[in-house]
Design goal:
Shape: globular
Distance between the termini: 45 Å
Number of helices: 6
Radius of gyration: 16 Å
Strand content: under 5%
Structural class: mainly alpha
Largest sheet: none
Length: about 120
């Protein structure tokens, strides 16, 4: 029961953050699965990618669309290569040690955070 409450809460928080600022899956859900539910880095990443298979962003997209904030051309171009990149990235990740993948994940989040905090 406790695990279900954690999953429901993290889903809600990640959904709100995704709708507000475009983050959620990697930055919020992956660490929660690892540190609160004992997942490995590989398990957490695989679980989040499976979650993305569902049309979870549909309602958020609807609000941004209604407000005129979607560039369909850019989104479709990125989606076409994201599909390939996701496949290649997952092949690489599952072939690496979980500690290496976790360190790469943390480093990327750190670099992005520093850039965003100190950019003008």
């Amino acid at each position: 029961m406790n695990e279900i409450l954690i999953l429901l809460a993290v889903g809600l928080v990640a959904g709100v953050l995704s709708g507000m600022v475009g983050i959620g899956g990697g930055i919020v859900i992956v660490p929660v699965l690892i540190y609160f539910l004992g997942f490995t880095q590989h398990q957490a990443q695989g679980t989040v990618l499976f979650m993305f298979l569902l049309p979870i962003g549909a309602l958020g997209v609807m609000n941004y669309y209604k407000s005129g904030y979607i560039d369909w051309r850019v989104a479709l171009i990125m989606a076409s290569t994201f599909l390939i990149g996701s496949f290649l990235g997952s092949k690489i990740a599952v072939s690496l040690d979980k500690n290496v993948v976790q360190k790469v994940f943390g480093f990327i989040i750190l670099i992005i955070a520093i850039k965003m905090i100190f950019s003008k």
